[in-house]
Structures are given as C-alpha cells and as structure tokens.
Design a protein that fits this description.
The complex is a heterodimer of chains A (86) and B (171).
Chain A lengths: L1 H18 L5 H13 L1 H22 L4 H17 L5
Chain B lengths: L1 H14 L2 H18 L8 H23 L34 H10 L1 H8 L3 H12 L4 H8 L3 H21 L1
Helix pairs in contact in B: 1-2, 1-3, 2-3, 3-7, 4-5, 5-8, 6-8, 7-8
The chains are: A mainly alpha (86), B mainly alpha (171).
Chain lengths: 86, 171
C-alpha cells in the first residue's frame, strides 16, 4: 500500500515529463506499470493528456478571417507610416 | 501573414483583449521589421519575436495597472489593478464589450472554456503554456524568452497544466 502511494506521488510529480517524453525508458516503464493498476493515476494521465491536446488543437485553428484582415490592415498602415521600414 | 498571425495570437492570449493585443502586435512587429537584419541565425527569429511580444505585453500591463479599473472579469467580478504576477491577472479579463462581434469571434476561435481557464493561470505560467503547448517551442526556447531556468520552466509547466486541468473542469 505504502509503495502504491509512493508510486502515485512519483506519477503526479513526473507526469508532465512523461507526457513530454523527457524520461528515460526505465522511468517510463515504471509509470506505465503503475498506471495500469491505479485508476486514479490512469485518470490523471488521461486528463492531463486531454488538457495538453486541447491547447495544441486550439493553436492549429486559424484566426477568424475578419481578425486576419484587420491584423493585416493595421500592419500595413503602420508600415506605411514608418519611414524606417519603407 | 504567418508571422502576424503568430504575433497576434500570442499577444491576444497574453494581453487578454483584442485592443491591447493589436497595439502589442503592431509595436512588436514594427520593432522586428526594423531589427530583422540584425538577427543572425534564422532559427533565432521565433525566439526574438516572442521575446519582443512578451516585453511589449508586460509594458502594456504595467500601463494598465495605472489606469482606472474598467474591465469586467470573466466571472463577473470587477477587476482591479493587481500587479502581483502570481495572483489573478486583471489584464487577462475580458473587456467590458465582451458581447462585441470581435470578442465573440475570438471566443469562438479559441473556445470560451479554454480562454476562461487560461485567464485563471498566473501570467508567467500562462505564457509558458502558450509558448510550449500552443506555439510548440522547446523548454530551452521558453526559458530564453521568459528569462527563467529550464528547470523552473519545467516545474511551472507541470504546475500550470495541472491547474489548467482543474480550471477546465470548473469552466
């Protein structure tokens, strides 16, 4: 039981590094083995993975056309006014 | 447009409102265009751009602290001018005109839930999440931009992800 709690703590602490692929094979294996037997850590891993995925998907969505048009127009106006960039 | 879009997205997510984001993007891009010939390594451009945007965002935020509070926070509470970097960030609140078409378009683009959750992060942690998760920068690049150590970036990223997960549940 004590080992399981210690492993939960290790997973909680190392989860981001695990998701980022920053851990060596031994540590990855330890986390994966523990997660198989611990519903709490399995859920935690899934939730953190979803959170990261949500941010990454949002970044792939292009800006709305109206905002793109305004951004482009404001930059153009700015550059036209700035003698150093002409 | 790629550079402008990236600069605008980052400015918007750090500043939290479109007006400030447009100002920051303009200033940052203008500075970038002026200095572009001095950037020796092409791979350094991205770091340069984000660092420049970050600096202008911080300057904008400092100015905001001196302005009268006129923002409404996402939870409807009036937002003050708290400058503490680890507390709720007034500069991330949605402007009073949150029902304006451009604000609605921004919410639709990013998702109001994610936008609300991001607003609940401490400013530095939010910036780290944006740079790592959304812009796909390496830990080393994020450390360079934020002027933190790589270990600190990793620690903050882990904390921010966990907090973001909780905030998404609440949102």
């Amino acid at each position: 039981m004590a080992k399981r709690i210690a492993d939960c703590g290790m997973v909680t602490e190392r989860l981001s590094a695990f998701l980022d692929g920053d851990l060596d094979a031994a540590e990855c294996g330890r986390i994966a083995r523990h997660a198989k037997t611990c519903p709490r850590c399995t859920q935690l891993t899934a939730e953190l993975r979803r959170t990261v995925g949500l941010c990454q998907r949002a970044a792939k969505t292009p800006l709305p056309p109206e905002l793109r048009r305004r951004a482009r127009a404001s930059i153009r106006r700015l550059l036209e006014k700035d003698p150093q960039t002409r | 447009m790629r550079v402008q879009a990236v600069a605008f997205r980052f400015s918007f997510l750090v500043c939290g409102n479109q007006h400030d984001a447009e100002d920051v993007m303009q200033e940052a891009l203008l500075k970038t265009y002026r200095h572009i010939t001095r950037i020796e390594r092409p791979e350094a451009f991205r770091t340069w751009l984000f660092r420049t945007v970050r600096n202008f965002c911080l300057m904008k935020r400092r100015k905001r602290v001196d302005e009268p509070a006129h923002m409404l926070s996402l939870d409807g509470q009036p937002a003050g001018g708290d400058s503490s970097s680890d507390r709720h960030d007034a500069s991330m609140d949605v402007a009073d005109g949150a029902k304006r078409p451009d604000e609605l378009a921004l919410n639709a683009w990013l998702g109001r839930r994610l936008r609300t959750a991001l607003a609940g992060l401490a400013p530095v942690d939010r910036m780290i999440v944006l740079l790592r998760e959304m812009e796909g920068l390496s830990t080393r690049e994020v450390a360079e931009i934020t002027k933190l150590s790589e270990d600190n970036v990793k620690t903050r990223l882990h904390r921010a992800r966990s907090r973001l997960r909780d905030l998404l549940k609440e949102a």
